[in-house]
Amino acid sequence: MEMILYSSWIMIWTKLRYMSYPEGTPTYVPKQKFIKYVDCYTEHFVIKPRYCTCVESVAYDGQTNRWMVIACDMVVGTETLYTVKFLVVATGENAVESIPAIPGFHSFHGEAIHSSAYKSRSSYAGQRVLVVGSGNSRMEIAYDLASHDADTSIVVRSSVHIMTKELIRLGMILVKYIPVTVVDSLIVNSANFVFGDLSGHGIVRPKLGPLLLKSKTGRSCVIDVGTVRLIKNGVIKVFGGISKIVGNKVSSFDAIVFATGYRSTANLWVKCMLNSDGFPKNGGPNHWKGDSGVYCAGFARRGLAGISMDAMSIANDIISTEYPFAPLSTDHVY
Ligand SMILES: Cc1cc2nc3c(=O)[nH]c(=O)nc-3n(C[C@H](O)[C@H](O)[C@H](O)COP(=O)(O)OP(=O)(O)OC[C@H]3O[C@@H](n4cnc5c(N)ncnc54)[C@H](O)[C@@H]3O)c2cc1C
């Protein structure tokens, strides 16, 4: 499956296997409707997530040929041991917040938070706020701040595709019939027409088109929510990368929001198949498969489409191990 949009809604193509959205669901599914859909899904298929439970360690017992998984209930603090033949690690590339090491960071006396902690825009009204990062979170938080009277600046360090959600949707439809480079060229030209030349504001496009870039590197484009207009109007100011912070006068900001992404931590407890960065030790195409029945899904920097492919490969592998004569599924849902 392929999820395309961010924060408050999700494109209708982001559906799970074996259950469509209810009749009349809008193309851009609002967050609450999506949550309801997921709740219906778990109820229908009797999936019982163990909420507030954190896996703390994993070890393979060669005597019983089983994985021993210790998980802690974060509410009551009790530990449970799960003994399983197959273990699928799907804890995501975005397990914990990542803030880059910036020289002088500790000398900044204003508020410095990660985007995941950004909750209340009202508390920034009248303040000078710098939003650091490269993706959708940066652009959405900057828009939110600037629309609520914060004096907002962003840092743009690397190239980025800024698109509209309609153009991305069009691209995803066309790419089924037309070569991706042609589609990319079409939607980039259209986006340039919509947004104009933003290079004067420090925003330049990567060489690869947005769809090709996503499929090759997993890097998503930025979907504009109105931020570009505020940048062009000078309401949001744009700076290049920050190399250091000097005291609380760091460029005179009262607060910094680091929309600098997340990182995987599964390597701390699945050392056997993930490297120190939390990504599979195996290169493709079998990056999802470890030894003795351990698998990982969603660690190949390929977005939801990649996760879907990993999930299908893993399910097929487990089925072929358990039921060698069962037919395997070949279709993927994006
Ligand atoms: C703000 C934001 C917006 C995004 N928007 C998009 C988008 O529009 N389109 C897109 O394709 N991708 C988007 N992504 C990337 C997106 O997060 C992934 O594509 C997708 O959610 C990954 O799914 P996943 O199931 O692999 O991991 P996750 O959705 O991260 O799920 C992993 C789960 O594992 C749990 N977990 C972690 N460690 C443990 C542990 N030790 N024990 C127990 N549970 C654990 C976590 O709590 C979490 O519930 C976005 C990411 C962020 C941060």
Automatic annotation (TrEMBL):
Cofactor(s) for this UniProt protein: FAD
InterPro entries recorded: Auxin_biosynth/cation_transpt (IPR050982), FAD/NAD-bd_sf (IPR036188), Flavin_mOase-like (IPR020946)
Enzyme nomenclature, EC number: 1.-.-.-
Transmembrane segments: none
Keyword field: FAD, Flavoprotein, Monooxygenase, Oxidoreductase
Entry GO MF terms: flavin adenine dinucleotide binding; indole-3-pyruvate monooxygenase activity; N,N-dimethylaniline monooxygenase activity; NADP binding
Top-level taxonomic group: Eukaryota
Entry-linked Pfam families: FMO-like
Family note: Belongs to the FMO family.
PANTHER family, per database record: FLAVIN-BINDING MONOOXYGENASE-LIKE PROTEIN (AFU_ORTHOLOGUE AFUA_4G09220) (PTHR43539), FLAVIN-CONTAINING MONOOXYGENASE (PTHR43539:SF50)
Protein name: Flavin-containing monooxygenase
Organism: Paspalum notatum var. saurae
